[in-house]
Amino acid sequence: MKKAYLGIDIGSISTKGVVLDDDSNILAKEYLWTEGNPMGAVKKLLAELEKQFDKDEYEIVSTGTTGSARKLIGVMVGATIVKNEITAHAVGTLNFYPDVRTILEIGGQDSKIILVDNGVVVDYAMNTLCAAGTGAFLSSQAKRLGVEVEEFGKIALQSKSPTQLAARCTVFAESDLVHKIQMGHTRQDIIAGLCRAVVNNYLNNVGKGKKIVSPVVFQGGVSRNEGVVHFFEQQLGTKVIVDENGPLMGAIGIAILGRRARARKKFDFAVEDMEFRTREVSCGRCPNNCEIICVYRDDVLIDSWGNRCDKGALRAGTRGESVK
Amino acid sequence: MDAGKRNIAFPIIANYNCIVKFFIEKGMDLNYIEQPKMTRRTLDVGTKYSPDYVCAPFKSTLGSMIDALEAGADTLIMTMGLCRLGYYGELQEQILRDLGYEFEMINLASYTTGNVKDYYKAIRRLNPKISLSRFTKAALIGLKMLEYIDEIEALYYRNCGFEVNKGEYRKAYEDFLMAMDMVNGRKDIERQYRKTRNAFREIRLDKPDHPIRVGVIGEYFTVMDDFSNLGLEQMLADMGVEVHRWMNPTNRNLHYKGQKNLGVQISEYSRFEMGPTSTANIWCAKNYAENGFDGLIHVKSAGCTPEIDIMPVLENISRDYKIPILYLTYDSQTSDTGLQTRVEAFNDMLRMRRAAI
C-alpha cells in the first residue's frame, strides 16, 4: 500500500484540504467555505476528499493542520503536525516554485508577505492590529455594491479610470467609497478603485520597507480576483504569478511538513461520523477568568486550552457533564 | 500593617513591586499595600476608564491603581516619564477622582525638575519624620535588589528553554521572586540571590553550542512586563530559543551609558535622541546584529510614538546586517493566538535560515 499525506488549512473564510503522495502529486483536493463552522466544514471536506482518491491503493499516514482553526481541527482529526500558516504557505509555494523570491498572500482576515532567498525564508511580515485590505473588506464592500465578490475581478478590469479611494484605513476607505458612489462614479470604476486600494494598502502596510523582488507569487483567496492581480502587476512593474492551486498552498505546505516530520499515525475517515462539540468554560478560579475551550468527542473531553495557569487545567478523558 | 500610617501603593510593573515595597516599608517606615497580580479584570477596568487612544501601559497601570485603592491604599505613587508617560500620573489622578476615589497622589512627574533634591520633597510629604540615613540605606539596598532581579531574570530567559526536566527553572525563578517579596535586609537578599544562582547551576541543561538567539527590544513597559506582552519571552524560550533582553531598569536607568556614549556608536543610523528608549533600542539592535543574533523582536504598545519612530531605523539595521526583525504591537487584547502564530512562524524561519547556512 502506498503512502499518502493529508493537509488541512482552515481559514476564517474558507477551508482547504489536499492529499499528497510521496512526490507531492495531488491525489485529492477540495476548497469550500468555512461559514463560521470549522468543524462542520472539515467534516464536509473530508467526505469530499475521501471520494477523490483510491483508498485501496493509498493509506494516509500523516495529517497536518494549519490556519486559524489549526489547533481545534488538529485535536479533532488527531493531527500529527500542527503549524502556523506562514510556514505552511512558504513550504507549499517553494515546492512548486523553488526559485520564488517574494510570496504575497491576502486571505480572508489577514495578509502577509514572505521574502525568500535561495529557497530559504529570510523575512516575513503580517498585518498586525488592522484587517484593512483583506478579503473580508472586499466581500463586505461587494455586498454594499450588490455584486458577487467572485465577479469583482472581471468588472474591475473593464474600468478605464479607477476611482481614487483613501486606502490607508478600511474605515476611511469605506466612507470615501460611499461618498464616491453618491457623486456618481460608475460601478466598474469604483470596483477597480477598491481593488487598487487593496493593493496600495497592502504595499503600504504589510509590504512597507520590504524589497519585493521577482519572481513574485500571489496567493490567498484574494488572488482569485483578477483586478487585484492586475494592480499588483501595475504597481510592482513585474509579472505576478498566480498558481491555480494558490488557495491550496497552505494545505499543500502542511501536508509536506507532515511528510517530512517523523510522527506517523494512520488517518481514519471515521472522524466524519463522530460527534464533536466545543464548550467555552469560564475558569472562575481567579479574577482573570480564563476562557477555557473544551473539545468533546462523543461527550468525552479530548482536549482543552486557554487556561493561563495550572488552576484551570482540565483532565482529558473526563465525561462531559462532570466538568464544571 | 500598622494603624495610623499611610497605606501606599504603586501600580504593578513587571517584577519590581517588591523593591517599592521594601523601600516603603524599610526605608520610609510606612505601610505598603500590595494589590493582586494583574488579571484580565485589571485590564478591563483600566480600559473602561481610559481614553481609547492612549497606550496600553496607561490602561494597565490605571487598572492596577484601582485594584490598589480597592485593596485599601490611601496614597498612590506614580512614576515620572520621558514620553507621554510624564503626563499619565496627572490624568490618572483626575480619572480616579472623577470616579469618586479618595486618596492622596504623589506624582513623581511634578517633582521632576532637574534638581534631584526636589524628590526629597516628595519623600518628606510621604513621611515628614523620615530618617535620612535609614532612607538612604534602604534605597541602596533597593538598587541592589533591582540588579539581582534583572540578573536572575536574564539568566532565566536565556536558559529555561533548554532544561532537561521541564519546570525546574520556573520553580527556582518563582521561588526567587517570592523570596524577594519577603526579604528583610541586605543579608537576606544576598543569600536568596546566591541560593537561586546555585539552584540555576544545578539544573541540567540540554543546550546546543550555538542555540538560536533572539534579542527582544522595544518600549520600556511592554517589553518588560510579561502580563502586557502576553508572555512573549516565555513563549520564545519554550520554543527552544535563547532569549536576550537588554532593556531593564538596571541597564536603562542604573548603569545607562547615556545618549552621548551610545549615540556615537550608532551615528550612522541616527543622530538624535528620538524618545526615552530610542537610542538605547537602536544601539541594542545594532549590538545584537553585530554579535550574530538570529533575529530581533521589536515590542511596542499601539500608538507609542518613540518606538514607531525607530522602526525605519531598525529596517536599515535589518537590511545591513541581514537580520530579520519581527514587529509586534500590543493593545489591551488578551488573546495570544495571533501572537503565537507570528512568533512560531518567526522561530520556524530562523531555524530554516540556520539550516540553510
TrEMBL record, chain A:
It comes from the Bacteria. Its cofactor is [4Fe-4S] cluster. This is 2-hydroxyglutaryl-CoA dehydratase. Keywords: Iron, Iron-sulfur, Metal-binding. GO terms for molecular function: iron-sulfur cluster binding; metal ion binding. Residues 6-257 form the ATPase BadF/BadG/BcrA/BcrD type domain. SUPFAM superfamilies: Actin-like ATPase domain (SSF53067).
UniProtKB/TrEMBL annotation, chain B:
Pfam families: DUF2229, HGD-D. PANTHER family: BIFUNCTIONAL PROTEIN [INCLUDES 2-HYDROXYACYL-COA DEHYDRATASE (N-TER) AND ITS ACTIVATOR DOMAIN (C_TERM) (PTHR32329:SF2), BIFUNCTIONAL PROTEIN [INCLUDES 2-HYDROXYACYL-COA DEHYDRATASE (N-TER) AND ITS ACTIVATOR DOMAIN (C_TERM)-RELATED (PTHR32329). It comes from Hornefia butyriciproducens. Coiled coil: none annotated. Residues 12-243 form the DUF2229 domain. This is DUF2229 domain-containing protein. InterPro entries: CoA_activase_DUF2229 (IPR018709), Dehydratase_Activator_Redct (IPR051805), FldB/FldC_alpha/beta (IPR010327).
